[in-house]
Amino acid sequence: MSVNGITPSDLKTILHSKRANIYYLEKCRVQVNGGRVEYVTQEGKDSFYWNIPIANTTAVMLGMGTSVTQMAMREFARAGVMVGFCGTDGTPLYSANEVDIDVSWFCPQSEYRPTSYLQNWVSFWFDEQKRLQAAKQFQYIRLQQIEKYWLASKKQRDKSFHPDSQNLKNSLERARLAMESANDHTTLMLQEAQLTKSLYKLVSQTVGYGHFTRAKRGGGVDMANRFLDQGNYLAYGLAAVATWVTGIPHGLAVMHGKTRRGGLVFDIADLIKDALVMPQAFLAAMEGEDNQMFRQRCINAFQQADALDLMISSLQETAEGSALR
């Protein structure tokens, strides 16, 4: 049945992997007006209306002082848009569903998503060794993305970020060898943590940030920590979209599942967090950017790197490949 001459299928003509927009909104009302989804802001006695192109949007994060109407949620669901309620500047993310409270989304309800990826996924997921191999495959993709984008700046003559290429390659090779030899998930996660620590050190040295210690929940006044949290939550939004598109539940994680019910979102976000979010967080902190400027940095980086496309294809290939092993 069509509504205002638009059928639900018309709203899904743009593949999720090719959609351009992620929205973080605060102090506004999201509503439907004349068949379009808009957000309304107030400045004194004046109201300003801004259109949300839902057919080209992957996720909407609703921050402080926002409200959304039932009709707007209906249109988001029809267009396949993830919606999440969150704190100031996008962290933490709240919503009342079954996924972990820090990474949870209102997912569009559809009975016509593919089931083949889920069937392949569960065919290997209960085998711990196959699950470990899938986790390693995600980590190898992560290493490839880090090398690709951290060293791409030299090829593009971008003077803003020039890590020591040999130091980076050595760190990535050590991590790859250690991950290959890991015989359980605990060892693999330990190697992942060591890699991340070395990357923090390298990126802070590269931009001249000085001493850096990763702290959760924003790290107080430390802007790099605050930007890392904000950028990571944007990556979680893309990862939630990727799992929804492929129809694989968030709880069927291959690496983080023992500690977080929404672990698959973390697994998928890890594919691009270090490669794309980490450098931007430190660069934005050094340049004194505000939260909105940093979020735009991340969104631009995600678009240029086809981050959502990578997440979806990685899930699909892992589901198919692991099921055949």
From TrEMBL:
Q: Which UniProt keywords apply?
A: Antiviral defense, DNA-binding, Endonuclease, Hydrolase, Magnesium, Manganese, Metal-binding, Nuclease
Which Pfam family is one of this chain's hits? Cas_Cas1
Q: What class of enzyme is it?
A: hydrolase
Q: Which metal ions or organic cofactors does this protein require, according to UniProt?
A: Mg(2+); Mn(2+)
- The yes or no answer to whether the keyword Isomerase is present is no
One function term, GO molecular function aspect: DNA endonuclease activity
Family, similarity comment: Belongs to the CRISPR-associated endonuclease Cas1 family.
**What is the name of the protein in this document?**
CRISPR-associated endonuclease Cas1
Species, as recorded: Enterobacter sp. (strain 638)
